[in-house]
Amino acid sequence: MTFTFKKAAFGGLATLGAVALLAGCASAPEESDEAGGGEALDYLPCMVSDAGGFDDKSFNQLGLEGMQRAAEELGTEYIEVESAAETDYPSNLQNLVDQGCNTIVTVGFLLAPAALESATANPDVEYVSIDDTVDQDFDGTTDAENIKPIIFDTAQAAFLAGYLSAGMSETGAVGTFGGINIPTVSIFMDGFAQGVEYHNEQKGTDVQVIGWDRAAQDGSFTGGFEANDTARQVAQGLIDQNVDVLLPVGGPIYQSAAAAIRDAGRDIALIGVDADVFETDPSVGDLLLTSIRKGIDVGTYEALVAAGNGEFSAEPFIGTLENEGVGLAPFHDFEDAVSDELKTELEDLQQQIIDGDIVVESYLASQE
């Protein structure tokens, strides 16, 4: 595990994307009047990554960027702790409690059990849970009053990506695979499949989704969130089934998919997740059709600025298409390849989802 204690350096942050968390289950707090560089607050925000690490070009990195921006605005320091394995989670959280952290952000679904244990033992510490409601007893509510969930109904944006992929496919097969079959991963894959199905219904096509079975709620998984040979082999298995669009869901595993695509020697488009991967990792930019974007950076920033100003709220935030908490990234190098007709259809579909005329199924849909 790696500990870092530093003053926020705003100049090194990635610029915020077009996604802005404007509203949600809870209203977004107003920006603080206190600018960075002023008298430091008696407030210390902290963050624990999951095993993917802060350089995952994905959700851990976005969470860290959100905390850095909040610390800069508040004029305070921050602590980041990188987990090398799941076994690090409890000790990392305890170390942050021992260092006097006021708000601890946990990044990822797999941190939920350790976050709940820490939050229950330390009721005076505020917790922000990215990507999980921390509802370990499955009663529909967060299990501790000092935990704020920041979660995203990415199925809505993935639906659009699925429809887009079906419209772009020339082989009639698109693929997806994930790190581990957990809700925050499968929600992408299932939404993607729903979008393909909708395209088939509307257009009379028969595009197949390889790697995810909606009925079984299971599919192709690597068993972790590392860019390794296993992830490359899973991607290759889908490529061998003639897919020409590939959606890997699980932090850095997209890097293994990109390597397999380059080795394939044919046109296969890649879809990123969480961040606009074209911006976070230009090395794969030429392969990226789009990315399914989550506003993790903005959501984290908003929650920590509120907490730093004494306005912490445990009310959940759920990112949707309506509040711009989720969405598709620009097409970038594929801008000219996507027809104007398909672009118009995607805009219409997005509005229909926002209006409730099209219902995208997900485990979060009932909570919005």
TrEMBL record:
<dbReference type="InterPro" id="IPR003760">
    <property type="entry name" value="PnrA-like"/>
</dbReference>
<dbReference type="Pfam" id="PF02608">
    <property type="entry name" value="Bmp"/>
</dbReference>
<protein>
    <submittedName>
        <fullName>BMP family ABC transporter substrate-binding protein</fullName>
    </submittedName>
</protein>
<dbReference type="InterPro" id="IPR008107">
    <property type="entry name" value="Mycoplasma_p48"/>
</dbReference>
<dbReference type="InterPro" id="IPR028082">
    <property type="entry name" value="Peripla_BP_I"/>
</dbReference>
<comment type="similarity">
    <text>Belongs to the BMP lipoprotein family.</text>
</comment>
<feature type="domain" description="ABC transporter substrate-binding protein PnrA-like">
    <location>
        <begin position="47"/>
        <end position="361"/>
    </location>
</feature>
<keyword id="KW-0449">Lipoprotein</keyword>
<keyword id="KW-0732">Signal</keyword>
<feature type="signal peptide">
    <location>
        <begin position="1"/>
        <end position="28"/>
    </location>
</feature>
<keyword id="KW-0472">Membrane</keyword>
<dbReference type="InterPro" id="IPR050957">
    <property type="entry name" value="BMP_lipoprotein"/>
</dbReference>
<keyword id="KW-1003">Cell membrane</keyword>
